[in-house]
Amino acid sequence: MDLRHLRYFVAVAEEENIGRAAARLHISQPPLTRQIQQLEEELGVTLFTRTPRGMELTQAGELFLEEARNIRALVEQATERAQRAGQGKLGRLDVGIFGSAILDAIPKLLLAFRNRYPDVKVVLHTMTKAEQIEALRQRRISVGFNRMLAPLADLEIRQVTTETLLLAVPARHPLAAQPVIRFAELQDHPMVLFPTGARPSFIDKVIGLCADSGFQPQISQEVGDAVTGVALVAGGFGVCLVPDSATTLQFPGVIYRQLADTPPNFCVDLSCIYRKDDQSPILAAFLNTVDGYREDTA
Amino acid sequence: MDLRHLRYFVAVAEEENIGRAAARLHISQPPLTRQIQQLEEELGVTLFTRTPRGMELTQAGELFLEEARNIRALVEQATERAQRAGQGKLGRLDVGIFGSAILDAIPKLLLAFRNRYPDVKVVLHTMTKAEQIEALRQRRISVGFNRMLAPLADLEIRQVTTETLLLAVPARHPLAAQPVIRFAELQDHPMVLFPTGARPSFIDKVIGLCADSGFQPQISQEVGDAVTGVALVAGGFGVCLVPDSATTLQFPGVIYRQLADTPPNFCVDLSCIYRKDDQSPILAAFLNTVDGYREDTA
DNA sequence: GCCGATGATACCTGCAGGGTATTGAGAAGG
DNA sequence: CCTTCTCAATACCCTGCAGGTATCATCGGC
Fold first, then answer.
1. Superfamily holding A163-267
2. Percentage of the residues of chain B whose pLDDT score is greater than 90
3. Residue B58: closest C-alpha in chain A
4. Between B3, B64, B82, which is nearest A64 by CB?
5. Does B45 lie at the interface with A, CB-CB under 8 angstroms?
6. Which of A88, A223, B33, B191 could be A281's S-S partner, Cβ–Cβ 3.0 to 4.6 Å?
7. The CATH number of B161-268 is which of 3.60.10.10, 3.40.50.10860, 3.40.309.10, 3.40.190.10?
8. Given CB atoms, is A283 within the 8 Å cutoff of chain B?
9. Does nucleic acid strand D have an atom less than 7 angstroms from the CB of A17?
């Protein structure tokens, strides 16, 4: 049996006349007769009673007609869905994000993507940079978000956005009273640094900036993420450099201040990372959205 | 697209290797490669990523795999159901029965049929003899049950059973007191006759029997069916000849008595009637059951 | 750097699906 | 009652495509 048999069968059942059905199918009558005979023979069932006025469905034929229509509808649906999936409009995208720094760009980005591709289910996985890389290689995620990503042979990195840095200061801290804070002054105050874990990370960025300005920072505490860092600032552990999107973290007793006389490159990137050999149309659609986002915010 | 494409696609998706899939399908590798390419081209979707280790489904491919399996299962189910329908094991049988005389044979027969063909839905329609014939011709029913059916050009009649007649007598009736009632005595007593409606019917049978015995019955009342007739007997309207299955109608004040010296053919048939040109396997199965029933009760 | 595995390509063959011409059977109509 | 019309079925031919064999291209692993 064949989808052609079903198509022909449905046509004959609907027309109740082989000649008209053949015309509708743009074939001549004899091959259609033969196809119907073949179908009946293969099923071992008489689907039509032949009358001098045409073809009439038997009870078995009526039942088979329902099923045939179902099958044809399902085939149509299958092709349609496969095509949408092939265009990245349907399916699932697993995204790796890092603990807390998803404060501004990532939600906006995901929202924009969801609007454009409503039938793609986006699944978020919170994981560290190292976990993201492993998960990408194992294909548990298709794209990861992180900062300070170093080039890798099999993974492609695409920058999403760049943020300048601000200083989180306890409200009673001496620096909080100053109208202007110069970057070099940070050498006199203990700092909270984050994140712990795989290097290079934002920590190295901060230490590098200090080195560029000719000093080593006093490290009061290293913590896992920005939220914890700002919490320690609130607790008086010291000051902390954070990306400006962290200002959405409003802690009582913490104020954010801009810095003067900053070294060059006083900013940190947010990038996404994905497998170079990933041809998935959903990833392509997502990266497309990322590019659109970057242009909008540039 | 073709069911073959789906079969091949599922095989390749399951084996993740064209060579093995080809072996499983008992074809060689190149045509299989080509069929998969055709399928992908027709859908406009890449279903597999080709790796040096074999074929790996894309996300679109995985989705299509589900659908393909569904479709194949549905096709299998459709053939199976069509075949069962073709064998009369699945479907629907519309049966015409008459008002009340379905007292013994018909329920037993329907029960036997239902046991043998549990997936055939039997729909009962109560209708008169004339309505049955019209409904048969219009194909609203496939088989009817009645008595005293006269031959018709397009309808076949098959006798189901034969019943002798009994006399329903009011308990206080003079005849009730006699140890033996002879048929000829009925000429002295008013009788209730049934059914009204299309002739010839059971009424003609009774009148004919009386004529054979040399008298005309005194008609006290004509009624539509046996139940009403026996009710009138209970009300003292007279006696009434009924088929012996009517003894299941137990009315207070009515007793059933056998008759002596009855004329020949002192019995009435129950037959079923169906279209001569009806090739329906369900009807065939039903008639088969009817034959079995007749043999069992013979 | 060679070998083995895997998928892709090239080319051939046989069959099955589609075409034309015709027959057969029943219904309609003069 | 014979003719004619309408359908489906049959006979026969032809072309396109599924499937076969041989071979190539590519990538990992030893």
1. Periplasmic binding protein-like II (3.40.190.10)
2. 78
3. A280
4. B82
5. yes
6. A88
7. 3.40.190.10
8. no
9. yes
pLDDT, tens digit, 9 for 90 and up, residues A120-167: 999 999 998 889 999 998 889 999 999 989 888 889 999 999 999 999
Q: Please name the residue of chain A whose CA is at the shortest distance from the CA of residue B41.
A: A83
User: Which of B3, B79, B282 is facing A43, going by the closest CB pair?
Assistant: B79
Handedness of CA B29, B34, B35, B36 (dihedral sign): positive
**Residues in contact with A21: Cβ distance below 8 Å, sequence separation at least 6, in sequence order:** A8, A11, A12, A14, A15, A32
DSSP code per residue over A100-158: S--SSHHHHHHHHHHHH-TTEEEEEEE--HHHHHHHHHTTS-SEEEESSPPP-SSEEEE
Strands A190-193 and A267-275: unpaired
pLDDT digits (tens, 9 = 90+) for A49-103: 988 888 999 999 999 999 999 999 999 999 999 999 999 999 999 999 987 656 7
Alpha carbon A267 to chain centroid, angstroms: 25
State whether A85 and B45 contact (CB < 8 Å): yes
Check if residue A27 sits with its Cβ under 7 angstroms from strand C: yes
Angstrom distance (rounded) from CA A88 to CA A93: 10
B111 touches chain A (CB under 8 A): no
| CB contact (8 A) between residue A1 and residue B82 | no
Q: Find chain A residues with C-beta within 8 A of B140's C-beta.
A: none
Residue B102 pLDDT level (bands cut at 50, 70, 90): low
Distances (CA, A) of A183 to A133, A204, A232, B153: 34, 16, 20, 111
> Chain D positions under 7 Å from a protein CB?
6-12, 18-23, 26-28
- pLDDT score recorded for residue A103: 76
CATH topology of domain A3-86: Arc Repressor Mutant, subunit A (1.10.10)
Give the CATH number of domain B91-160+269-297; options: 4.10.640.10, 3.40.50.300, 2.60.40.60, 3.40.190.10.
3.40.190.10
